[in-house]
Amino acid sequence: MSDIIAVLLNGIAQVEFDRNKFVPPEHKVYLDRMDQKMDHSIELDGQTLLRPDLGQRARFVANLLAQAIAADSEAQVAASTSWLALRLPDLQQVNITETGGRFTIDLIFDRPYVKQQPLVFKHSK
């Protein structure tokens, strides 16, 4: 298991969450509230699920994450990423592909994230 979970949009890292970093108690309370809300029901793929399991919750939160990235909502990105990282300890990457305003999301459990390195071009004379 990797300590880092990465969120990529169209192959470009957007967020890296380190599971070893301190999570403030108030943040954990917020994540618990997210769980309590999902206990009642969630809307997933046009269907209302009254008792969503962990996998369904993860897909729901990953969808929230994609929408938050698109809306540039830092607080919702942080909450969604934290929820996924802390509730799914084996999750290593969230790969989001956006095409024409629609998102495809893959939750990757078996491939650790490799930090992206910028390309440096040297000018020839």
What percent of residues adopt helix (DSSP H or I)?
25-40%
User: Could you spell the SSE succession in H and E letters?
Assistant: EEHEEHHEE
Question: Roughly what is the average pLDDT, rounded to an integer?
Answer: 91
Distance between the termini: 47 Å
Strand content: 25-35%
Report the structural category. Answer: alpha+beta
Number of helices: 3
- The main sheet orders its strands as 2-1-5-6
Gyration radius (Cα, Å) is 16 Å
Number of strands: 6
The number of distinct structural domains comes to 1
What gross morphology would you assign?
globular
How many strands, what sense, and barrel or not for the largest sheet?
Answer: 4 strands, mixed
Uncertain runs are none
Describe it for me?
By secondary structure, the protein is an alpha+beta fold. The chain has one domain (4-108). The chain is 38% helix and 26% strand. The protein is built from three helices and six strands; from the N terminus they run ββαββααββ. It has helices at 25-40, 54-71, 74-87; strands spanning 4-9, 12-18, 42-44, 47-49, 93-99, 102-108. A four-stranded mixed beta sheet has the order 2-1-5-6, with helices on one face. Helix 2 (54-71) packs antiparallel against helix 3. The longest helix has 18 residues, at 54-71.
